[in-house]
Amino acid sequence: MKQTSVGKVNLDTFKRVHSQEFQGVIHSIFDHTINVVLNKQIPNMLTLGGRRVRGSPNSVFLENFQELKSHIFRGQKVNLAQGKLFIDPQLEIEFRIDAVETSEKHNTLPSNLSQKIEKLNILELKNNPYTNNPAYRPFLAPLLCEIQSLKQALISGEYIRIRKNGQRLIGLGVGLTPSGDDVLTGLFLTLNSLPKCKEKVVEDILGKNGSQLSHTNLISQHQLYFAALGEGKANVLSFIEESDPELIEERAQSVLEIGSTSGFDTLLGIKLAMEFMRAEEIEKIEMEKN
Fold first, then answer.
1. Is the pLDDT of residue 35 over 70?
2. CA–CA distance, 282 with 140 (Å, rounded to integer)
3. What domain of life does the native source organism fall in (predicted)?
4. Is residue 212's pLDDT more than 70?
5. In angstroms, rounded to a whole number, what is the distance separating the alpha carbons of residues 165 and 154?
6. pLDDT tens sequence across 154-171
7. Distance from C-alpha of 42 to C-alpha of 179, rounded to nearest angstrom
8. Which of 8, 20, 70, 71 is nearest to 45 (CA)?
9. What sign does the dihedral 49-47-264-261 (CA atoms) show?
10. Where are any strands of DSSP class E within 50-175?
11. CA-to-CA distance for 35 and 220, rounded, in angstroms?
């Protein structure tokens, strides 16, 4: 007997998938998410999950995710048509707009830059998964080295170096989304408040039409694609946009819960962008003085 369920998606995702018709497969299954690849092309991958994915781009929030998960297996054929996802042979998911999680995009400069950077420095020392897990330690030094090089290139405005250092981060590390990709995700999402700067940085790093995305895995490709558009996980955007000093740590802790190192790596990228923004602010003040 066919089961029918309601999957809630944000407005952008609804617009993208409502008129699409694709065939695909279940790509990967994890404890809290299932990835559906529709035609092996960006951005046609959907992530099914519970509350962790709510409000995220191309993600489908299912109240009964854990129950439905038992009916889904890797390699299973799927069809997307008429705003519904058909998972052969027994499951149908109808997409509906999640009005609670749909909001306008904000391009305002993040507030409390210095306070957030200070908080991130403290969290970096207290919650570093690389130092807490011996298996991850070998990856930390090269990651921090590339981040520092990219930071220097951003502050100096040397776009050849930005391209070179940024592209070295693509696919760097291990995991579902390699650490370097998570750093770039945090960077792109935070720079969304500086559209002209972001467009230049994104194009330099990802290449024209995202040509550099092929250097990482399929899931990371989608994540970076959406980050370049200013779309990302709801809890990441909440931290970037948070203006209440009392809530900064709570928002950051929510980001740290993403994956084994992904949340931490994303915060490193956010901090990188905020340090760049602060340097730009200081330079502007100095120029006005003179």
1. yes
2. 29
3. Bacteria
4. yes
5. 10
6. 988 888 999 999 999 999
7. 20
8. 20
9. positive
10. 59-61, 77-81, 84-87, 91-97
11. 12
Q: How far apart are the first and last CA of the chain?
A: 75
- 50: CB partners within 8 A, 6+ apart: 32, 61, 62, 63, 65, 66
Tokens 């370049």 — which residue?
Answer: 228
E-strand ranges in 84-209 read 84-87, 91-97
Q: Look at residues 7, 134, 132, 17 and name the one whose alpha carbon lies nearest to residue 72.
A: 7
Packing angle, helices 195-206 and 159-169, rounded to 10: 60
Compute the distance between CA of residue 43 and CA of residue 212 in angstroms, rounded to an integer.
15
Peptide bond into 57 cis (omega under 30): no
- Which run of H or of E encompasses 31? none
Q: What pLDDT is attached to residue 108?
A: 59
CA nearest 111: which of 268, 244, 270? 244
For tokens 């776009």, name the residue.
159
Q: For strand 84-87 and strand 22-29, is the pairing parallel, antiparallel, or unpaired? A: unpaired
List Cβ<8 Å contacts ≥24 apart for 87-90.
Answer: 87/26, 89/2, 90/1, 90/2, 90/3
